[in-house]
Specification:
It is built from 14 helices and 27 strands. The protein has about 475 residues and is α/β, with parallel strands linked by helices. It has two domains: about 375 residues, Rossmann fold, CATH 3.40.50.12780; about 100 residues, ANL, C-terminal domain (GMP Synthetase, Chain A, domain 3, 2-Layer Sandwich). The strands form six sheets. The protein has a nine-stranded mixed sheet with strand order 3-2-12-11-13-14-15-16-17, sandwiched between helices. The chain has a six-stranded mixed sheet with strand order 7-6-4-5-9-10. Helix 1 runs antiparallel to helix 2, helix 6 packs across helix 7 and helix 8 packs across helix 9. It is globular and about 70 Å long. This is 2-succinylbenzoate--CoA ligase.
Length: about 475
Amino acid sequence: MEIPNWLLKQASLNPNRVAVNDGTTAYTFAQLVPLVAHRAGQIQAQTDQPRVGVMTHNNLAGYLAALGVLAADKTIVWLNWRLAPEELSRQIGDAGLDLVLVDDQLADRYYGGHRVLCSELTAGTAPAAVLTPTVDLDAVASIMYTSGTTGQPKGVLQTYGNHLASAISSSLNLGVLPNDLWLCVAPIFHISGFSILMRGLIYGMGVRLVNHFDAQVVNQILEDEPVTIISAVPYMLKKMLEDVQANDHCYSSAFRLVLLGGGTIDRATLNACEESGLPVVQCYGMTETCSQFVALSAEEAPYHLGSVGKPLFTTQLRLVGEHHEIEIQTPALTPGYLNQPAKFAAKHDGDWYRTGDVGHFDEDGFLYVDGRLDEMIISGGENIFPAEVENVLRQYPGIQEIAVVGRNDQQWGAVPVAVVVSKQPVDFQQLEAFGREHLAHYKVPKVYLQTDALPKNASGKVQKFRLQDLVANA
């Protein structure tokens, strides 16, 4: 099925509405068309391949390059600039790329022979492309490589139809207002960032780009500018909250909410946000579904702290098996993994997609995500989900980061072990006592290790498989 080209449609419907700005420069939808067409023409002159890599910060140069790839009728392959050269080369090879567009600020991050800097793209002299008036909803718009916390990343195919279904479901939950301005500080090479760009084109909504996350900078923008929504992950929210509490920020009257995804968060932080006037709406999604498929509404959020909400309008969800694995059906679901059909097939239970997460509903039908099935620890026949334990122990004074993993045990089968990051020595006996006040005793780790940093991948997710070696002999 084909529908009107999103950019051209917005340029027709809302030509003078600001589509994107970075705090210094702004472009309307009408102004974007020739800029994007020029870049599309340069891309078409550079490669005949169907996919083009993009490596960029959240800036206008990267935004225009990405839209140029789409306007050239090619697929964006998002490349995470934090990856090691070997990892980047592997993904570039897997995607069959012979053109990688690189933000000038990241020129030292990639030196491949098919690199073209964004400034070189802008300076190109090839004729501008004639933009295709429609988009095919089955065509793959973007490919993102999953984080790979337990193995090699998979290239997730994301169609225009996937992005559209996700945007529609989100709009039916959060609403879309004429003055909406979505602050994009989540990296656009992640779905939490790129989905904002796509929603801007679908909704006719402004996007405020922020190069990188700094809590003070973000809070000042929310105070001074008419931003209505920001997407954040728990780390960002906690830093924003600390700055709000320390500097007494008062957000603009236009501000509506923080859409929180990207992992679990402790109830104490959510309570503090509510007390500080920081409206948080939790959601649950993944790269494979082009962002959230479960979310709270703004009205429900204060009354269901800790829940990720209810399945969005186009989502079907069920809990399956002894451990209540979350399975879904949604038109936002990827059609597959690049070059890995067997792995995608293995994720299915008939027509249902197995998320690998475990959860439960409360009596009102709100979903709570308990943790990852592959991280679950079975100790003496009891199921322990590390995320639940981490969220409690993280509230202990002085704890910066904490990760809980299982260690084989002859008596219990496995026992939970906590690895802690703190600026000062931690009294593990006191930490264990704190845990026993808030958790069932079998969930409380009996062994604790303190380290300078937790091993993480380029997306900032803890690589728990690397912690297994650390705790094996603890």
